[in-house]
Design goal:
554 residues; alpha/beta; 7-stranded parallel sheet; 19 helices; elongated
Length: 554
């Protein structure tokens, strides 16, 4: 044990303790002691690495070391100071977490379970350090082997490059792509075998029913849920006390056909068979990474249009959106493009005065892939009518461009873009009615929360403060949040992994009443009074906050 302890750098450990303490400060999401412990362990390892690098740099610059007496005195002062800081931060951690929880309407916590938290952090710290030392040994092994062939310094450079390439290829090629694709394939096969009890439709004009082009079992769990749930025309008509239609929903699962092109064509043919192009509105949906379609996003617009609406979606993965976003951000764009291309080509052949209005919708990774599904040069001659994209991931191309090019004075978490005739942003507080702005023929709305780490994660937070952290901040972002180099990026990374654990209306869980505002702006449904809209919001708020409401499946 003493040998192990002596193998650690004292300066590295002290800096690691400071990073551990900094990790306890608040970020976007409330954290349990399990998540906080893992985060703190990674931050401590990062701090240790910074401390070791500082010592190396000191020696490399050949700066004279202080005397042993001064070193001993400074060491004890540093130890006492770092431990005191960590203790104070642990004592303040619950208070900091409560600043986030109170904004989200959650009850306060009395403690962050410091002992359990510290144990988890220590284990994570040791594992990360072991991996770092494995990398160092690999680097030295390559360098020694190459030193027989090339000069010493050249061998170190090449050895370092080879070690980085080896570890990156293992992580990227084996862990991320091979393993995740194996998991994706396994879940695909498993999902096809699961009987979740969703009743097969008896209506021949519904996907999976008698005469349908789609096999009910091949739709997968998410597809069957999408088709089997949702409001009926009778329910919608009862709410508005008027006649309403049964909304048309089409969903093609991964098992429905072999290739993405075949699945997209199958979706088009089923949509035509079910009469989707005879409705007044048609929505092309790109699901989340798991294949899930948020019912809050679709149920609401079906009510707003009294059921006179059709929607079509196509599955492309079983992986969670945040995981796909980190390891393979382009995952699903091919499916989104194929589906839109099939639907759009047929839609443009229909008479303009009788075809449905065409809209796009996506949540999370679905929003990013929905952005990629339609290229401006392909649709500019005959554009679709609009899009609602909620929780756009930080890598979304159009979202990034618009946010960076926002009007001066508008915050990064709620941008205003040019004259607001094409693109507008909103959050918990409806911000779509811009003074003096007039919608054009194409309407795009981004629904995003300032507390959503999927949207506001930023790799650059490693070394610079993100724009959205500057004052004024979003209404659901803690005023105690501070940018800390290195630490903030890791905090946001962990926030992204737990983004769907927040209450509805915060984080990455989008509330139906906010969807209603977005859909009202994008689709402009006719014949609705403000009282009807308010009553519909109240209805969905009560429904979505009930105990029976399933958690997000992102």
């Amino acid at each position: 044990m003493s040998v192990l302890a002596k193998s650690f750098s004292a300066i590295g450990l002290l800096v690691g303790i400071l990073f551990f303490a900094a990790s306890l400060t608040p970020s976007l999401m409330p954290r349990s002691y399990l998540v906080q412990g893992a985060l703190s362990g990674f931050c401590a390892a990062l701090g240790y690495g910074v401390g070791v690098a500082m010592v190396w740099l000191w020696r490399y610059l050949e700066i004279p070391a202080p005397s042993r007496r001064i070193q001993r005195g400074a060491k004890w002062v540093a130890v006492i100071l770092c431990i005191a800081i960590a203790g104070i931060f642990l004592w303040k951690a619950a208070e900091w977490q409560n600043t986030v929880r109170s904004l989200m309407g959650l009850g306060p916590v009395e403690s962050v379970e410091p002992i359990e938290l510290a144990v988890i952090a220590l284990v994570v710290f040791l594992v990360v350090i072991m991996l770092a030392r494995l990398f160092r040994h690999t680097f030295r092994l390559f360098s020694r082997w190459l030193n027989r062939l090339v000069p010493r310094r050249v061998s170190k450079v090449i050895g370092g490059v080879l070690a980085v390439a080896l570890f990156w290829s293992v992580a990227q090629g084996v862990l991320f792509k091979v393993v995740l694709r194996m998991v994706d394939t396994s879940f695909r096969e498993l999902d096809a075998r699961i009987d979740d009890g969703s009743p097969r439709p008896s209506d021949p004009l519904r996907p999976g029913g008698p005469g349908s082009l789609l096999d009910w079992q091949d739709l997968g769990r998410q597809g069957r849920a999408f088709i089997a749930t949702g409001p009926t025309g009778a329910q919608i008509g009862s709410f508005f006390n008027t006649r309403a239609l049964d909304p048309i929903r089409v969903y093609v699962g991964l098992n429905s056909a072999e290739t993405v092109e075949e699945r997209a064509h199958l979706a088009l043919e089923e949509l035509k068979r079910d009469g989707g192009f005879d409705r007044s509105a048609l929505i092309v949906i790109v699901p989340t990474g798991t294949g899930w379609v948020d019912p809050e996003g679709i149920d609401t617009v079906e009510y707003l249009h009294h059921g006179d609406i059709a929607s079509v979606a196509m599955q492309y993965s079983y992986l969670s959106s945040w995981l796909s976003l980190l390891v393979e951000p382009g995952y699903g764009s091919e499916a989104g493009q194929a589906l839109f291309r099939e639907v759009y080509r047929h839609w443009t052949t229909l008479p303009r005065d009788s075809r449905p209005k065409l809209y796009l919708y996506g949540l999370s990774l679905g929003a990013m892939n929905s952005e990629l599904s339609a290229h401006l040069y392909d649709i500019i001659g005959d554009p679709f009518q609009g899009a609602l994209w909620s929780g756009p991931p930080f890598q979304s191309r159009i979202w990034n461009s618009v946010t960076v090019g926002r009007n001066p004075g508008s915050p990064a978490w709620l941008p205003q873009f040019r004259d607001g005739s094409i693109i507008r942003f909103t959050n918990q507080n409806n911000a779509l009615d811009l003074p003096g702005a007039v919608w054009g023929p194409l309407r795009i709305v981004y629904l995003q929360y300032a507390s959503d780490p999927v949207t506001f994660f930023d790799f650059h937070a490693l070394y610079r403060e993100p724009e959205w952290m500057k004052v004024p901040r979003g209404p659901d972002v803690s005023p105690s949040l501070r940018w800390i180099p290195g630490v903030t990026m890791l905090q946001l990374l962990f926030d992204m992994a737990i983004a769907t654990t927040s209450p509805m209306g915060y984080g990455h869980v989008y509330a139906p009443e906010h969807y209603i505002d977005g859909w009202m702006a994008v689709t402009d449904p006719q014949g609705l009074q403000q009282g009807d809209v308010d009553r519909l919001k109240a209805f969905f708020i009560q429904q979505s906050r009930s105990d029976d409401n399933p958690p997000p499946s992102d």
